[in-house]
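Subject: Protein record for review, amino acid sequence with backbone structure tokens
Category: Structural biology, sequence-to-fold work with a learned token vocabulary.
Format: Residues in single-letter code; tokens as whole numbers, each standing for a residue.
Body of memo: The sequence and its backbone structure tokens, given next.
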Amino acid sequence: MMVRQRISKEKIPPDAQKVGAMLMSKTSEGQAIAMRVHEVKEKTVVVDFNNPLAGKTLNFDVKVTDIKAAETK
């Protein structure tokens, strides 16, 4: 699920009004959140709150170093 929101251009610094720009904001509880500029429109900027890796195929190269029997309780 894509999480995007439109924000008035007046609330975004002019130098950050370009696709791909990363911005930081805070929730009402003070928690920091990252957002990326997805689209710049005439009066608004569409920001994306998803992790930059969301929707991408990830490949991991792992090495199993040990195998243990499951413990019974």
Remarks:
- The two ends are 39 Å apart (CA to CA).
- The mean pLDDT is 91.
- DSSP finds no helices and four strands in the chain.
- The first strand starts at residue 4 and ends at 8.
